[in-house]
Specification:
The complex is a heterodimer of chains A (about 290) and B (about 230).
Chain A lengths: L2 H6 L4 E6 L8 H9 L6 E4 L11 H10 L4 E6 L5 H13 L4 E5 L20 H12 L16 E6 L7 H13 L3 E6 L3 H10 L7 E6 L4 H10 L7 H9 L3 H16 L5 E5 L7 H7 L3
Parallel strand pairs in A: 1-2, 1-8, 2-3, 3-4, 4-5, 5-6, 6-7, 7-8
Helix pairs in contact in A: 4-5, 5-6, 8-9, 9-10, 10-11
Chain B lengths: L2 E4 L2 H7 L5 E7 L2 H4 L5 H13 L3 E8 L5 H8 L3 H6 L2 E4 L3 H10 L3 E4 L1 E4 L30 H4 L12 E2 L2 E2 L9 H11 L28 H14 L1
Parallel strand pairs in B: 2-3, 2-4, 4-5
Antiparallel strand pairs in B: 1-6, 7-8
The chains are: A alpha/beta (about 290), B alpha/beta (about 230).
Chain lengths: ~290, ~230
């Protein structure tokens, strides 16, 4: 299913994500994905998230596809040059993978192979541009393709970035380069998010608000200190702190955030980060 | 010695679009030796700009555009001319353009590309860096190099990893290059420059041409080899 098309048809788009394992044991990954069957419109497959070497997102996307699930293949520019990126885009197409999320990628030094050479030959904007070129039957060097692919191209934005203007300038560039939908970094402040949505209304592109499930008050404080553009307000931290069942409270908060932000956007993207099994509960609690 | 070559005229012309009064800055250091920014080239550029209907608000040639104190000192007498100009056209290497950008609150257009010589750098004590990429982007970034100031070398805007203007990699010490670029362009009221889509870089231009590798020492070494061979 084409994510952008769903949004265009007025469907409130629901996506979640799975992270491929470090290794080849995919039993848990596939079981987690199975829980999402019928509950979400697409499943993001992260690309060596946080620059940690893992099973590849292209192969994992194909595994989901074989099970009749809808993968959203995440591609970063961190590890591949323009030759490999274009080749993987073509590969994705022949493997039946339509939805591609184009990202720049984290810096290598923050992952588990800090000695690695960072590539960043392209960036998220030029990766989108490359995919569009391929759709038009040309590669980045202008050579003709034998058969051209078609994609549904997505990108990301950080609504809580300060200052926000550079993010919006880049978001506009991404739209011009070919982005058809956006998923956001985690949002915990519905009022600020509503303002962000007003500011980007002119871009006329579907935005799916990012929800990262809180695991504990400590996790929230860690994110506030270390994760750019993410701010968990004190009252949510207190709620988590006092809760007897952290899992129950986390589900309740996620569902509440979704309900509050649903009127302002075109979908939701849930990042469970280890609590994939609880995603169906979040959706049920949010009335989705 | 840093090797530069003048950008093609259409590229310079495009970077000056919408601007009328231009102040030209040349360099009597490496750029003079490369015939890209000495007084002769500055006067040629003045004539070219006037032929194209621009007004040259003034010009000067600084002995070494890689010396910020010297640039300040040499530009001081031209303060009024510079203030009256829409922008500065700087005819030198990427370091000189960045150094000039540091001392004036105007857009500094690079007139040259800095050519890679395979690792031999001129002496430079400032924090600015030039990768000698052969396709100078300083025009789009307010005179701050995105390749060297952004940890990832991104050319189309910031990633999502900056917090309080600091890069997520070494947040204690490392500024987000794109935050600096954004603040600079905002101050100059030229955020339109940041909206321009920059095409993927041609990294082929970073492979130094063989004839640009030799140095004086290299020539002496060659001579010695020849003597030994005889």
């Amino acid at each position: 299913m084409n994510i952008a098309e769903l949004a265009k048809n007025g469907k409130f788009v629901i996506t979640a994500e799975v992270g491929p394992p470090k290794g080849v044991d995919i039993i848990e990954l596939m079981a987690d994905a199975e829980l999402l069957r019928g509950r979400v419109d697409g499943i993001n497959v992260t690309d060596q998230q946080s620059s940690v070497m893992r099973l590849g997102s292209l192969a994992t996307s194909r595994l989901l596809k074989e099970k009749g699930l809808v993968p959203i293949f995440q591609m970063t520019c961190r590890d591949r040059n323009r030759i490999a990126l274009q080749s993987d885009l073509l590969s994705a197409y022949v493997l039946g993978i339509e939805n591609i999320l184009c990202l720049t990628g984290d810096f290598v030094a923050l992952g588990d192979h800090p000695q690695a050479k960072a590539v960043f030959d392209l960036d998220s904007v030029s990766l989108l541009h490359a995919a569009k070129q391929l759709e038009q039957g040309k590669d980045l060097s202008g050579n003709d393709l034998k058969g051209s692919p078609s994609f549904c191209l997505g990108a990301i934005v950080t609504p809580g970035a300060e200052p926000l203007e550079p993010q919006i300038i880049k978001m506009e560039k991404k739209v011009k380069a070919g982005a058809q939908f956006f998923q956001t970094q985690a949002v915990y402040e519905p009022e600020k998010f509503a303002e962000f949505m007003k500011a980007v209304k002119y871009l006329n592109v579907p935005v799916m608000v990012g929800i990262v499930m809180l695991r504990s008050a400590g996790m929230a404080r860690f994110m506030n200190k270390n994760v750019a553009g993410v701010h968990v307000p004190d009252d949510l931290i207190n709620e988590m702190d006092k809760a007897e069942s952290k899992a129950q409270k986390s589900i309740e908060i996620a569902a509440r955030l979704i309900k509050e932000m649903k009127p302002h956007c075109q979908g939701v993207h849930i990042m469970a980060i280890g609590w994939e099994k609880k995603v169906p509960d979040v959706l049920a609690a949010a009335g989705l | 010695m840093i090797i530069s070559e003048q950008k093609p005229w259409p590229e310079i012309s495009e970077s000056l679009a919408g601007e009328q009064r231009i102040f030209i800055v040349g360099c009597n250091g490496c750029a003079e030796a490369c015939h890209t920014g000495g007084k002769t080239q500055v006067l040629e550029m003045k004539q070219k700009l006037e032929e194209e209907g621009k007004t040259v608000a003034g010009y000067t040639v600084v002995d070494f555009l890689c010396d910020k104190a010297l640039i300040k000192f040499k530009l001081k007498p031209h303060e009024e001319e510079i203030k009256s100009a829409d922008s500065l056209l700087v005819m030198t290497c990427g370091l000189g353009v960045q150094a000039t950008a540091k001392v004036v609150d105007s857009i500094t257009h690079p007139a040259c590309d800095t050519i890679n010589v395979g690792g031999a750098r001129g002496e430079w004590r400032g924090e600015e860096r030039c990768l000698e990429c052969g396709e100078c982007l300083l025009d789009y970034t307010g005179g701050i190099c995105p390749l060297t100031s952004c940890t990832k070398g991104l050319i189309n805007g910031p990633c999502g990893g900056a917090k309080d203007g600091k890069c997520e990699f070494e947040p204690e010490t490392r500024d987000c290059g794109w935050h600096l670029i954004y603040e600079r362009l905002k101050k100059l009221n030229r955020l339109d420059k940041m909206k321009v889509m920059i095409k993927p870089k041609n990294y082929n231009k970073m492979l130094p041409a063989k004839q640009l590798r030799p140095t004086i020492l290299w020539a002496l070494e060659q001579q010695k080899k020849e003597v030994i061979a005889k």
